[in-house]
Amino acid sequence: MTAEYVLPLTDPQATLAIVGGKGASLARLTAAGLPVPGGFHVTTAAYRELVSQNNLQPAILSALEKVDVGQPSTLETASQEIRAQFSKANVPPAVAGAIAHAYAALPGKDPAVAVRSSATAEDLPEASFAGQQDTFLNVIGPEGVLEATKDCCASLWTARAIGYRMKHRIDQSTVQLAVVVQLLVPAEVAGILFTADPMTGDRDQAVITAAWGLGESIVGGMVTPDSYWVSKVTGDVVKREIADKQVMTVRFDGGTRQEPVPDDLRPAPTLDDGKAAELVRLGVRIEQLYGRPMDIEWALSDGALAIVQARPITTLADKPIEWKRPDPKGVYMRGSVIDLMPDPLSPLFATLGIETLKRQMIPMGRRLTRSEPVLSDDYYTTINYYAYANTTMPGKMVWWVLTRLLPSFPRMLRIAVPLWRDELLPEYQASVDRLPGKPPADMSTAELWREAQTLTDAIMKYVSTLLFATMGASAGSEMLLTNVYNRVAKREGDPPAPVLVMGWNSIPVQAEKSLYDLARWCGERAEMAGYLLQLPSRRLSEQLAAEQTPAGVDPQHWMELRRRFNRHLERFGYIVFQLDFAEALPLDDPTPMLETVKMYLRGEGANPHERQKAAEERRLRTSAEVLERLRGLKRWAFHTALAWGQSMAEAREDALSQIGFGYPKLRERFRELGRRLADLGVIQQADDIYYLEQAEVDSCVGEMNHDQAPGALSDLVAERKTFLERAAQVTPPPMIPVKKRVMGIKTDVFVAASEEAQTGNTLKGVPTSAGRVTAPACVLRGPEDFDQMRSGSVLVAGATTPAWTPLFVMASAVVTDIGGPLSHGSIVAREYGIPAVMGTGVATRRIRTGQIVTVDGSAGTVTLPDAQA
Predict the structure, then answer these.
(1) 157, 327, 427, 851 - which has most CB atoms within 10 Å?
(2) 270-308, pLDDT tens digit by residue?
């Protein structure tokens, strides 16, 4: 063997730097006497020789320079460029000879082997990189092994691998790849063993997944496998789920293919209890060898088990998240204003924002109902940093609702719009504008904190007004209009009731029109349009913020583009994505807006001017036609309900959009305060201030005012970040505990479905906009994902706010985790005439981007691929 390019599987030189993560792990397992198939390593020296002899490094670095990790399309473009270079490369003779010699030394003539990629940044304790590079099974003959080895080297540069390394801040110029060549196990059964339950974090149980044939079908997600839960102490199978295994991966003509599982094997168990226990015993040995829970790929052939890969489990929860009620007698729900808080809240917002909102409910309720509201101490609260409302009413609160709130409702409907327009909104804007114009950098620490709290008071006071004046009132008025229209006015062939409240020129629609007009202006200048379309939006955003005109662009056109775009940001850049002030504003990252401009430049999406005008004309025509044919009491009832419903619908989206008016100034003050804490070493970076609680910031500010250095809180921040990352991966219960009715009202009308209820392949939610669409899904977690949205896709999100409105132009349907008939997503979906299903509870976790799903906005269902097959 040529030791520089090839090593035996157990060679002492088989370290991470020389044979990659997978190779080093297999060498360690083999040395420990575990049943690992024989083979050899193709080292990183061979990869370097391949790259050097074919002069590939300049092409690699050139392609990477164009990558913007926030723009997935640039990852794919770079990957294609790099892999095209590898496909044209020749394996250097010295490398080819070493590989052929090592292959010839394997037992048998032209044995079938598995050729597996093994990167130097792979299977690390903090990042497994699972599935980032390629594996080739059933490779036969020296030529096949050489070709597969080259393809493995090229797979170091898949789009997902490039993006994953960037996310983990791994220097792309230093990564290399080795290859493991092993005798192929002709598996009758294969699967994955987790030496701890990956879902619950239980270290006492191992979890086995198993399917017929080679393991590719499980790893690739092509089959639903059997699952076995096995006690690591006794070896007993404590639970089993036997699946209907429809396909299997088999060897075929120097490769693999998928075949149907024979009918008698589809429902048959793949493992008996004895073999499951034997496999877990091997897993325990591997766990002890590594000193941590492991993710192990295994195969079973002719009664013998083989280990083909093992890596640490990098995402194992310490323990399940428990959903304990603050009040054991309370009933907690996620709905209403909590639609604007779909994700775990930052600790600062949870303790400052939520508490301020709850406090402001009292004076605002008094102002609108002319009486003192009675609220429970935890009327708004957080559970595991998710926002909840306690719907349990003390006796005094029930009495207030019956004798004060409900009798005030007709008056509130009458005065809500003028009250919001003429008093509440101007008061909010004035309170923000009244702040001194001193730059945050020139303020004392006490001034920064005081003004941040003043702004929070103003914002939450305004939000509390919306709960009474627009959100609650619009819900009631639209329900009333719908009932009156359906009962006394609607005839066969008439449009549905939502038509009567559509077509307003709301602030989100104006923002959409503004971007459309900007795109149209750019489209009239060919060189400008061409420049925008070829440049990643993040780079374009940086250039627009700078003073310098890019090369190849007309300076006057560029100055005008900057002026128009900055004007758009001034008018609409404060519209919040959600209520938590820790979340970035469009002002902070305008790349989603630029993606919308590009969409219009590509000729995608409908003209928002025409769409809004058509909806407005349909609303006016339908209203006039119905009023024309009604008489007497019916006409009066419909006219009254129509006036209330339309006035509230017109104001609702504008009222929500204005919530963010004070956020830019608030975030400026938090940013400066966070910078000062970071300079003192209290936290690592300025934005870490959002991971502190109000009392902690208060204490730090007090100490700084007395020229004392606050103690370091970085460890506490890191602990909270870790927990919030875990919390973001789970589905919060929509109701704790689950009840079918609250105050006599069915909860399934306004509360999302629970995760436990969504067990099949058809997700159930609230039908909020009629129609049926089958299309690819696009799952968006937040603004950072907006560029992934494609025209015709089903928009899947936790919830949507007015800032998401431009995405509806591209969407064929909308599905959310939380929300109801009168949530933002429902209203806009009806405005755009696309199906919508809200409140599924689990859409963002059960649906994957690219899956073909069927959204039935009339039935309130979302059908996933397996059920459609």
Answers:
(1) 157
(2) 999 999 999 999 999 999 998 888 999 999 999 999 999
C-alpha pair distances (Å), 151 with each of 129, 179, 217, 586:
18, 10, 20, 42
Tokens of 321: 């998240």
- All structural domains of the chain, each given as residue ranges with its CATH number in brackets, are 1-184 (3.30.1490.20), 185-317 (3.30.470.20), 497-659 (no CATH), 752-868 (3.50.30.10)
**Residue keyed to tokens 């030189």:** 13
- Grouping H, G, I as helix, E, B as strand and the rest as coil, residue 272 is coil
SS3 856: strand
Spatial CA neighbour of 313 closest among 444, 451, 193: 193
Task: Give the model confidence (pLDDT) of 615-673 as tens digits.
Answer: 999 999 999 999 999 999 999 999 999 988 888 888 888 888 899 999 999 999 999 99
Residue 413 tokens, joined: 């409907």
**What is the DSSP secondary structure assignment for residue 223, as one 8-state letter?**
S
Q: Is the dihedral of CA 463, 465, 466, 467 positive or negative?
A: positive
Q: What is the distance between the alpha carbons of residues 489 and 504, in angstroms, rounded to a whole number?
A: 23
Residue 631, class by beta-carbon neighbours within 10 Å (0-12 exposed, 13-18 middle, 19+ buried)? exposed
Local structure of 765: helix, strand or coil: coil
Under 8 Å between Cβ of 226 and 270: yes
Report the side by side order of strands in the sheet with 836-838: 762-764, 861-863, 852-856, 772-780, 794-797, 813-816, 836-838, 766-769
Measured CA to CA, the distance from residue 810 to residue 453 in angstroms comes to 39
- What's the pTM value of the predicted model, to 2 decimals? 0.64
